Amino acid sequence: MALPNVTINLENGNLGRIAQSDDGVAGLILTGAAVSDKLALNEVYLINSSRDIARLGITAENNPLAHKELTAFYTETGDGAELYLLVVSEATLLSQMCSIEEGSPLKKLITYAKGRIRLVGINRLPPDEYSADTTDTGIDKDAVTAATAAQSVGESFARKVMPFRCLIPAAGWDGKTDKLYKPREGSTNRVGFVMACDDRTNKTAAIGQMLGRAARISVNQSLARVKSGAITAEGWLTNGRTPEECDAMLDLLDEAGYIIYRSFSKKNGYYPNDDHMGAPLSDDYSNLNYGRVADKATIYAYTAYIEEIQDDIETDDEGNIPQEMCSYYERLIDNAVAVAMQGEISDFKSYVDPAQNVLSTRRMAVSCRIRPRGTLQYIIVNLGFENPAIKQ
Predict the structure, then answer these.
(1) Which among 294, 290, 292, 299 has a CA at the least distance from the CA of 336?
(2) For the whole model, what pTM was predicted?
(3) Which of 45, 47, 143, 333 could form a disulfide with 52, with the two C-beta atoms 3.0–4.6 Å apart?
C-alpha cells in the first residue's frame, strides 16, 4: 500500500477545443563554460537580477549563450525575478539535459528548488564539430528526443505536486518544411518548441526571452498577448532568416505548433505568435497558459487538503460522508482556488458526492471544474457603406 496522501488527477478533454506567488519562478539549463571561482558547471545558482550575471563572471565572450539568455530574461522581467541557473558542459546534448535518469540536469534543477520552479527553459550552443541530424525531422532530432524526456520528467514531478512547463529550442532547423516535425502531432503538453531566434550569428532559439515573458505575465495570459507589448525589435527564426524572409512558411510553422515571431501592420517590433505546446488542440493543455492555470490550481488544491490527511471524520448510518462534511470539503477547495485565482479563471466549482463509504475505502473523491478565461485570437470586423435612401 502507498503512503496516505492527496492525489491530484488532471482530467483532459473537457474544453471541447479542436499575493506573491511562485507562478513566475523559472529555471534555465544552458550549455557553457566554468568561470574560475565564480561559476561551476553542474551547480545550481539562485539569481535575482541582471547584476548577478557579472557576479557569476558570465560575459558574452566566455559564455555567449548564458549571457544572451540571462540578459534577455531580465530585460523582460526586470530585476527581482527569481531564477535558478544550471550550466552544463558544451558537449551536453538536449536529450541528456532532460534525461529521466536520476541526477540529470533537469531533475537536479527541480529538486534543488524544492518544487518552486514553474517554468523551465533549456538551450544549447553546440560545439563547432557538432552535426545535427535533421534528416527525418527538419530540426535537430535530439530536440524531439529531449521533449519526450522532459515530458516524462515533468509528469513525474507533477505527481509529487511540483508541476512545471518547459520551453526547448527547435534547434538546427534546415529551413525546409516538407519533413518538418510537427509538435501539434506530438504528446508533450508540458513542452513547447521555440523556433524564434534572437541570435542570428549562432542561430540559437530565444529561450530566455520567451521564458522571461512567461514569468512576467499572469498564468492565464498567452505569450502572444499583444497588450504585453512587442517582445523584440529584431529577430529571426532558427534557420537564421527573418520572419519576412520566411513569410510564405509562417502560417505552416504556426499550425505545426512552433513558437515563432510574427509582426502586425502599424505596430513596431515582433510578437510571439502563440504559446503552443507539443500536443494537439484536442488536448486541454496544448497551450502554455491553460497548462499553467491547471498547475496553479493543482498547488492550491493540494494545499487545501493536505491537512485533512489521516484526520478522523463523522460517518452516517451507511458509513458514508455526511452532507455537512461534504459541504465543508467543498468550501475548503473553493476558498483555496477560486479566491486565490480570482481574475485568472472565469469560474470554479467543486462537488463531493456524499455516497462515498469511507469506512470501506478510506478515500474521498472530489470533482472540480475550472472554467478558464478565453483567449481572443481572431476578431472579424464586417465593414461597409450605408445609403439611408436604400431600404434594406
Answers:
(1) 299
(2) 0.89
(3) 47
